[in-house]
């Protein structure tokens, strides 16, 4: 399975919503990294990643999210995860990322 990425900037909330679906693994993590990097550099807004349709994430995908978080926090912005499935939430909990990245839904 591949990764699909859709994004939308919300002026009213100063947030950039990124919807990802499929599987976020080593084969496609670079696609998400490029999308996040280019938009973080251009908008420097808060980022919300909607994972409601994400089936799987591996350590490479986690690394991309950590990299985006670091970049955003340098600019006093933040990242949050929306609507992650239980198996994805479990990865965030095991790694302790649920303590440093806001999980909503």
TrEMBL record:
InterPro entries, per the entry: Anti-sigma_ant (IPR003658), STAS_dom (IPR002645), STAS_dom_sf (IPR036513)
Gene3D superfamilies: STAS domain
Source organism superkingdom: Bacteria
Entries under CDD domains matching the protein: STAS_anti-anti-sigma_factors (cd07043)
Domain STAS: 5-105
Pfam families: STAS
Molecular function, one GO term: anti-sigma factor antagonist activity
Stored PANTHER family: ANTI-SIGMA FACTOR ANTAGONIST TM_1081-RELATED, ANTI-SIGMA FACTOR ANTAGONIST TM_1081-RELATED-RELATED
Family statement: Belongs to the anti-sigma-factor antagonist family.
Protein's recorded name: Anti-sigma factor antagonist
Organism name: Peptostreptococcus russellii
Phylogenetic lineage: Bacteria, Bacillati, Bacillota, Clostridia, Peptostreptococcales
């Amino acid at each position: 399975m591949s990764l699909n990425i859709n994004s939308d900037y919300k002026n009213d909330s100063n947030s950039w919503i990124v919807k990802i679906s499929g599987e976020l693994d080593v084969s496609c993590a670079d696609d998400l990294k490029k999308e996040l990097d280019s938009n973080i550099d251009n908008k420097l807004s808060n980022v919300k990643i909607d994972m409601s349709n994400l089936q799987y994430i591996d350590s490479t995908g986690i690394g991309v999210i950590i990299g985006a978080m670091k970049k955003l926090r340098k600019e006093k912005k933040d990242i949050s995860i929306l609507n992650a499935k239980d198996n994805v939430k479990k990865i965030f909990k095991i790694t302790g990322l649920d303590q440093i990245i806001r999980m909503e839904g």
